[in-house]
Amino acid sequence: MSKIAFIGLGNMGAPMAANLVKAGHSVAGFDLVDAAKTAAAASGVAIAASAREAVASADTVVTMLPAGRHVLTAHAELLSATAKGALVIDCSTIDVDSARKAHEAGGAAGVLTLDAPVSGGVGGASGGTLTFMCGGSDEAFARAKPILENMGKRIVHCGGAGAGQAAKICNNMILGATMIVTCEAFALAEKLGLSAQALFDVSSTASGQSWSLTTYCPVPGPVPASPANRDYKPGFAAALMLKDLRLAQEAASSVGALTPLGAEAAQLYALYVAADHGGDDFSGIINFLRGAPKEP
Amino acid sequence: MSKIAFIGLGNMGAPMAANLVKAGHSVAGFDLVDAAKTAAAASGVAIAASAREAVASADTVVTMLPAGRHVLTAHAELLSATAKGALVIDCSTIDVDSARKAHEAGGAAGVLTLDAPVSGGVGGASGGTLTFMCGGSDEAFARAKPILENMGKRIVHCGGAGAGQAAKICNNMILGATMIVTCEAFALAEKLGLSAQALFDVSSTASGQSWSLTTYCPVPGPVPASPANRDYKPGFAAALMLKDLRLAQEAASSVGALTPLGAEAAQLYALYVAADHGGDDFSGIINFLRGAPKEP
Questions:
Q1: Which CATH number is B48's domain given?
Q2: B265/A285 Cα distance (integer angstroms)
């Protein structure tokens, strides 16, 4: 069993840390927010007085933070207190450039580093069914895998430093645009007098098939488990989709990649979130595309 | 067995008519192009002197023409020569408004009508494995089904007049945009140093999954049968995808539907076709998104 420091005990980090405790690891945690610390303590996380104290005796450090700047700040503070040869796993979803800077800083400090953003949301974090997309050396991946398996069911080594972040934003860029055009098709079908079920029946077994259609269908009915059947309660909140689409756009700009539909998808989710739908499931954008109902 | 008139013996019509002959039907055909008539005759189609002559003794008329104006012109010419109670199946992919006008004209002339556009391309037409998306009455569909089964393997009744065309353009609008964003993701991944195989491995079993990715993967390697593995020879030519995306945009305009990504996809395929790639497979747009290779 490992001695693990867990930095960032928010909506995702707290249940992830709890699963590490359940698996028998010794987990020292830290967060800047008092309520987060109290909740994590209730699940057996030993709350440290500071992040540096949490990492001092750890062989493994896990960070789960909101954005690249938080990760770089935290790592700058922690690395000098972390044992040489320790493993530092960053599970945050952040920009690729910051992820690579974190790897460089870790390398300079003599620790092994892995970027390992997740998909699966709070449900996956609680249930221990997250997918981890990992970037880093074979050695870092091999050491991290048994620990990540306590928090997820699918642990994928995508490549070197930053590859985990790259895989996540590329996947979610596909997802965001595919969901929007699937919503557009349902909204168009309605106005053409084609039933949602008929479009689903054709496209689900044809070239329009996608996860957005057949697992997460944005209209109620065809896929009973999809958020459309519970008034678009997330699920995957539109604000988080927008975050990922913006990270994809940052990455595309930094390497000169052309992503016209990814850019348009980011703009459309920005409009949707600005219209006060950031907390709705991202498939709820179909209502935005339908326009406001006419007055009777 | 039926007496069938087949109007339009082009790349799609000729092999479809040949399959009707093979199934034992008596098929009288007509086309404006001499070479098309010669080719169809070789497969057992009886070539008529005119379209009116072809339909004169038919219980079933099939039209397979390039666009709505051709269908409306042909039907205007043919309907007065067609027996009352005959079945007129239009397999062309045309705009929804024209399809509905064709139904109206047929109804006024006392024939049963079905719009039944196909997917599956020339390969599906030759192999008899097309999908037919059908719009029209239950009676018209019931009469057409056994005949369409001689040319296809999946015959779907989508709804009333025009529903077949609506289903096809909604499906292909999803397809066009999903393919583009999938290409964008592969092009972005390359520039970020994430391998195509790694992105495929993550997304093919995650929320980025689609037919465009897992059946028709736009990079060589992961899906050996996809056109990417044969230098983007179609497959489904970009010019035909552009046609369908424009039909979707026409339909969206006519009913006031909002389809921002569908519109952008149409513009991007228009740029691709204008750059002399109309004959390439539509997944070849990935090369367009990559930009020109730099001089060494």
A1: 3.40.50.720
A2: 19
User: What's the pTM?
Assistant: 0.95
pLDDT, one tens digit per residue, over B115-163 is 999 999 999 999 999 999 999 999 999 999 999 999 999 999 999 999 9
From the list A195, A259, A290, which residue is nearest B184 (CB)?
A: A259
Q: Does A111 reside within a domain? A: yes
Number of structural domains found in chain B: 2
A82 located within any domain: yes
Strand runs (DSSP E) across chain A, as ranges?
Answer: 3-7, 26-30, 46-47, 60-63, 87-90, 112-115, 118-119, 130-136, 152-159
A119 beta partners: A131
Chain B residues touching A174 at Cβ < 8 A? 178, 181-182, 185, 203, 208, 210, 213
Kindly state whether residues B97 and B137 are assigned to the same domain. Answer: yes
| Beta pairing partners, A29 | A6, A47
For B61-101, what is each residue's pLDDT tens digit? 999 999 999 999 999 999 999 999 999 999 999 999 999 99
Token pair recorded at residue B9: 């013996």
Report the residue from B96, B202, B211 with minimal CB separation from A167: B202
Instruction: Say whether B194 and A131 touch across the interface (CB within 8 A).
Output: no
* Lookup: tokens for B120: 């599956």
Residue matched to tokens 């359940």: A22
Tell me: do A149 and A200 sit in the same domain.
no
Measured distance CA(A209)–CA(A192) in Å, rounded: 20
pLDDT along chain A (296 residues), means of 10: 97 97 98 96 97 97 97 97 98 98 98 97 94 98 98 97 98 98 98 98 96 98 97 96 98 97 98 98 97 67
Structural domain harbouring A138: 3-160
Kindly state whether residue B228 falls inside one of the protein's structural domains.
yes
Tell me if B159 and A194 make a contact (CB, 8 A cut-off). Answer: yes
Planar angle of CA B91, B96, B102, nearest 5 degrees: 60
A–B CB contacts, 8 A cutoff, strictly below: 255
ipTM of the complex: 0.95
Rounded to the nearest angstrom, the minimum Cα separation between A84 and chain B is 28
For residue A37, give how far its alpha carbon lies from the nearest alpha carbon of chain B (Å): 32
Alpha-carbon separation of residue A265 from A225, A262, B111, B260, B262 (angstroms): 24, 5, 46, 9, 11
Q: Residue B212: which CATH number? A: 1.10.1040.10
Q: Do both B156 and B171 map to the same domain?
A: no
CB contact under 8 A, A167 and B119: no
Rounded Cα gap, residues B105 and B6, in angstroms: 19
Q: Does the bond joining B124 to the residue before it have cis omega, within 30 degrees of 0?
A: no
Q: Name the 3-class secondary structure at A61.
A: strand
